[in-house]
Design a protein that fits this description.
By secondary structure, this protein is an alpha+beta fold. The chain has helices spanning about 25-30, 80-90, and strands at about 5-10, 15-20, 40-45, 45-50, 60, 65-70, 75-80. Strands 1-2-3-4-5-6-7 form a seven-stranded antiparallel sheet, covered by helices on one side.
């Protein structure tokens, strides 16, 4: 966890990760009470990173609830319903 102002340099050059305050609004807007299935992890470049408690997969949303996924090293807008299913589905063991 970062010291002081809650900001740390991210994994990508020139980008900072903010570890506080958590922002649940984009996720609440999309899934309501099912937010309890997620942990807010950080904010980076205006995107909120949420991790599913069981699957450990990330759901990335902007302030308007648009959904993003990393493809070929870039974050691209994807369909929320499809991405939510991918992130929240049970892990086959």
């Amino acid at each position: 966890m970062p010291q002081g102002n809650g900001v740390s340099h991210g994994h990508e050059r020139g980008q900072e990760m903010e570890f506080e305050p958590p922002n649940w609004k984009p996720l609440e807007m999309r899934i309501g009470e099912r937010c309890a299935e997620f942990m807010w992890m950080w904010r980076q470049n205006g995107l909120e990173y949420y991790k599913h408690i069981d699957t450990r997969r990330y759901l990335v949303l902007d302030a308007e609830g648009r959904t993003y996924r990393r493809r070929d090293g870039d974050l691209v807008v994807v369909d929320f319903a499809e991405e939510f299913c991918r992130v929240a589905e049970a892990i086959d063991v």
